[in-house]
Design a protein that fits this description.
alpha+beta
Length: 133
């Protein structure tokens, strides 16, 4: 009985800690932005480096005139230089949910996280089935 509890805990940990936040959520956000997103011009206002990866900060105004700041996820290369204008797509329901057009055009790193998490769940399932059967 304890083994099944551990199995369930590990399954929920992998799903809730890896697949959902780093796989499904970014992919669903990108899909929503491609379908209902509003395109605006945004200014690159800064950047943050973490080892060899960069996150950029963009400022834009919604169609309603509200000023919003967006920080891109960490990635390997820059999208824009400071002060440069880029095309950005935001969700009209939640303007902080945004991506640059370049980010939307590229294959998301979230696919790797999604398939890695699924592979981990399958391996874990096979391991536990071998133990309990």
């Amino acid at each position: 009985m304890v083994g099944w509890f551990i199995y369930g805990f590990m399954w929920l940990s992998v799903f809730g800690g890896l697949i959902l936040p780093f796989g499904l959520r970014p992919l669903l956000t990108g899909r929503r932005l491609r379908t209902v997103g509003v395109k605006v011009k945004a200014e690159c206002t800064g950047r943050y480096w973490s080892e060899d990866r960069v996150s950029e900060h963009f400022a834009f105004r919604t169609r309603g005139g509200r000023r919003v700041l967006y920080r891109s996820p960490l990635r390997g290369s820059r999208v824009a230089g400071n002060g440069e204008m880029v095309d950005l797509v935001y969700d009209p329901r939640n303007p902080k949910r945004a991506r640059t057009e370049r980010e939307l055009a590229r294959k998301s790193e979230a696919w790797r996280n999604l398939w890695g998490g699924i592979g981990l769940l399958v391996a874990m399932h096979v391991f536990f089935l071998k133990i309990f059967i």
